[in-house]
């Protein structure tokens, strides 16, 4: 057997071994660890309500109307199919987008929570800041005929702390908050 044939066969054997290791065994091990160690997260962190899946705790959704807490602005349709590029860097385009969002929401630039007027990097962030949620309490309470203090208690109960106690900022998952709100005071047609 000549040198070329020997090297070709060695290369083929290496390719087959690496394909099995990295294309079959490694993904199977990672999947298995995910199923054992983090089953909920590995399944997409799906949120159930009334026995049906209503969304993922990891993906933002659009809520319309005064009776709901609003998510961050996004160019995404919130299906999870479209992601990325919904935020803008400093400049005239960002200033115009923020001014338009403020006008549409009846907010004032500079006094509103920044995440009420700016999009997240992915456009799929399900969280708002506690300040953003607190600014929406009066509107939601009035639309549902609830005391503002009761709605604020829901915001407080659905505020998540920093991850591992020091990473990130406190945040409110809007999907979970709106589900808690719906359980407290259902709206017609919801």
Automatic annotation (TrEMBL):
Its main location: membrane. One of its GO terms (molecular function) is P-type potassium transmembrane transporter activity. Keywords: ATP-binding, Cell membrane, Ion transport, Membrane, Nucleotide-binding, Potassium, Potassium transport, Transmembrane, Transmembrane helix, Transport. GO terms for cellular component: plasma membrane. The system is composed of three essential subunits: KdpA, KdpB and KdpC. Part of the high-affinity ATP-driven potassium transport (or Kdp) system, which catalyzes the hydrolysis of ATP coupled with the electrogenic transport of potassium into the cytoplasm. This subunit acts as a catalytic chaperone that increases the ATP-binding affinity of the ATP-hydrolyzing subunit KdpB by the formation of a transient KdpB/KdpC/ATP ternary complex. This is Potassium-transporting ATPase KdpC subunit. It comes from Terracoccus luteus.
